[in-house]
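Structure (tokenized):
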């Protein structure tokens, strides 16, 4: 990583607002000497934060956009984590198979996806579960974080406005119905293990592979 330009670092405001609460959830599921694969890592700010507070694991980032991977790698270098934390992988969630080496595959104990499924087509959520199943072993977990619509809970006004703004940007985007996500999880061999209420009307949903 010697030639990485630190000027490539991006700053996503939401990261600092939610990273502590997400870390609190992850702390219940992390096992030492394992690897967690993050899908759609964005700027990389989450990745370096989690790597620093969970030093016993390897946090493997990924993103399909070159600008994001440049930012991730710049953050890794900036935080002095290049001896511990691998460079970002070029993973497009819908492209099969995911470019994961046998070594990485053998270490993965969980997959984490933060703020992706509402800003991507439903086909990406389908691909997330399909390929997570292929890269996790029994009892490993998949964590999805973001805003959802739930049948039994009134959707907040802010989330309804957010949903409309997403659909205005792209008709294929929008908040997902948690029941529909759970059905998709079940079809791919996952069970919903727990739902954590998070700040700003978000959820962390933990799925376990049967």
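Design, position by position:
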């Amino acid at each position: 990583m010697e030639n990485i330009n630190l000027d490539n670092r991006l700053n996503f405001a939401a990261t600092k607002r939610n990273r502590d609460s997400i870390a609190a959830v992850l702390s219940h599921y992390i096992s030492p000497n394992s690897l967690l694969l993050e899908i759609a890592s964005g700027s990389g700010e989450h990745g370096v934060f989690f790597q620093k507070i969970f030093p016993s694991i390897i946090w493997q980032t990924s993103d399909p956009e070159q600008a994001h991977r440049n930012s991730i790698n710049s953050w890794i270098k900036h935080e002095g984590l290049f001896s511990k934390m691998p460079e970002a992988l070029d993973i497009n969630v819908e492209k099969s198979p995911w470019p994961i080496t046998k070594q990485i595959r053998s270490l993965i104990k969980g997959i984490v996806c933060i703020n992706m499924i509402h800003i991507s087509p439903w086909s990406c959520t389908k691909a997330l579960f399909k390929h997570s199943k292929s890269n996790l072993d029994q009892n490993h977990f998949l964590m999805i974080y973001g805003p959802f619509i739930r049948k039994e809970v009134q959707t907040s006004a802010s989330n309804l406005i957010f949903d409309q703004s997403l659909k205005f940007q792209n008709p294929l985007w929008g908040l997902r119905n948690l029941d529909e996500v759970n059905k998709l999880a079940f079809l791919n061999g996952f069970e919903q293990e727990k739902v954590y209420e998070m700040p700003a009307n978000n959820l962390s949903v933990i799925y376990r592979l049967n």
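Reviewer-requested clarification: Residues 73 and 87 are 6 Å apart (CA to CA). Helices lie at 13-26, 45-53, 66-78, 102-107, 122-135, 157-169, 178-187.
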